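Customer escalation, tier 2.

The customer says the design service returned an amino acid string that "doesn't look like it belongs to this structure." They asked us to rerun it and document both sides in this ticket. The original structure tokens are below, unchanged.
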């Protein structure tokens, strides 16, 4: 008998029939003698619908009120799933994040979990009930409803598994595991049996939306056994996120490709090349609470230099405004940018022991006539910024160039 936390995403609970299907799976695990805590997302499309509704009233929705609105999506699903389980003769009880007391900070729309009270859930499990918890939401110290950022139900699931010291956290979604890249973009993508925690962290942080980055961070911090599986298949082992590299198998050079359509590039041209300039440019951006990702500064010439960096696409107009002010203060020649870009990244721990990975990547893109606008590397990843129209092509040709469709 084990304590299992299962998380079901939006598509998996997208209709009454699918919710009944989830209930059947939960009931099956329960009948095997396991204790179950089930985390659910809003029905697919619901969070988008609620955000659009809010924007009809306020184009830049008040963050606290937006959280009040979007958290209702998950509240509907927990009630429906509890009913579906009762219909199948399984005792179940649903809780919102606030009812469990998933305590978060007060950063509305991107709150971080600080503590989870497990007393109520334990009592229910001891009483033989299935506990159903609304994903994506929490409550701050003042009692305000908060949400954890898009895709945040993954993080709710893993955080609950950590708090309850669950034996396993199973993320059920609409694909049967983590693939070498998004199978919607590359149909030849291959399912991975395992992926190292380090690689999963990179893929998630570079835009692969199969798992929210914070859920992977949580799993690492608290050593949660994490598995990604399909809610549409009866059998299947899914993909296990592993903490130790299996040294008996030779590592492929590249394990996966991630991409992100959600960034925009900003250039600050002709700034005086002197100490403190990076801080003068990026300090005000940070003060405006805008995350900066890739940063490139050119070697100075004639006493001036150029700066480029990326920001989330949604923050692009605001970032440009901040930089128009900065331009006046630092005496830059020009501020420009482009929000029609994408970032494509190759990831693999095998990169550590192989040379020529970068040149293969750049050659492959060059052969397709794809211009690289920015490059950044770390020990186990190489990212490039490209014109967004090349995204699919770039991912497909890189997938092939690194032989990812073949069995490992
Ligand atoms: P859920 O609603 O269950 O949370 P998401 O839509 O957030 O599901 O995440 C699942 C989707 O992630 C898949 O349908 C797939 O298109 C996409 N995806 C992106 N990268 C990958 C990858 N490397 N492996 C599998 N799926 C991926
Ligand atoms: N419903 C939320 C979203 O669409 C959270 C989640 O599904 O993980 O982002
Ligand atoms: Mg998701």
């Amino acid at each position: 008998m084990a304590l299992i936390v299962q998380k079901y995403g939006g598509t998996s609970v997208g209709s009454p029939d699918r919710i009944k299907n989830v209930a059947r799976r939960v009931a099956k695990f329960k009948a095997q003698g396991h204790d179950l805590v089930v985390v659910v997302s809003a029905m697919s499309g619901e969070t988008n619908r609620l955000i659009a509704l809010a924007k009809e009233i306020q184009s830049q929705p008040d963050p606290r009120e937006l959280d009040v609105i979007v958290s209702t999506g998950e509240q509907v699903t927990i009630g429906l799933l509890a009913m579906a389980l009762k219909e199948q003769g399984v005792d179940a009880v649903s809780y919102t994040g606030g009812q469990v007391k998933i305590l978060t900070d007060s950063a509305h729309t991107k709150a971080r979990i600080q503590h989870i009270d497990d007393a109520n859930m334990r009592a229910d499990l001891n009483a033989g009930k299935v506990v159903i918890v609304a994903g994506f939401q929490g409550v701050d110290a003042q009692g305000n409803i908060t949400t954890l950022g898009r895709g945040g139900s993954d993080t709710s699931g893993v955080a609950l598994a950590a708090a309850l010291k669950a034996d396993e956290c199973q993320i059920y979604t609409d694909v049967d595991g983590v693939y070498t890249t998004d199978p919607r973009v590359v149909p030849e993508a291959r399912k991975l049996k395992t992926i190292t925690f380090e690689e999963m962290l990179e893929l998630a942080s570079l835009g692969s939306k199969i798992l929210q980055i914070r859920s992977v961070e949580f799993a690492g911090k608290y050593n949660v056994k994490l598995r990604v599986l399909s809610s549409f298949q009866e059998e299947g082992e899914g993909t296990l996120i592993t903490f130790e590299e299996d040294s008996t198998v030779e590592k492929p050079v590249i394990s996966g490709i991630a991409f992100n359509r959600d960034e925009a590039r900003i250039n600050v041209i002709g700034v005086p090349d002197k100490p403190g300039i990076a801080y003068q440019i990026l300090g005000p951006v940070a003060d405006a609470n805008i995350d900066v990702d890739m940063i490139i500064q050119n070697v100075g010439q004639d006493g001036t230099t150029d700066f480029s960096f990326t920001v989330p696409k949604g923050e692009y107009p605001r970032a440009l405004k901040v930089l128009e002010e900065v331009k006046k203060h630092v005496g830059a020649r020009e501020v420009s940018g482009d929000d029609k870009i994408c970032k494509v990244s190759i990831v693999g721990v095998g990169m550590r022991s192989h040379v020529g990975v970068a040149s293969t990547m750049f050659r492959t893109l060059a052969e397709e006539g794809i211009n690289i606008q920015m490059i950044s590397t770390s020990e186990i990843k190489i990212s490039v910024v490209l014109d967004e129209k090349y995204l699919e092509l770039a991912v497909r040709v890189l997938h092939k160039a690194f032989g990812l469709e073949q069995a490992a």
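Tier 2 assessment: The sequence is consistent with the input. The chain has a mean pLDDT of 95. The first helix runs from residue 16 to 31. Sent an explanation to the customer and offered a walkthrough call.
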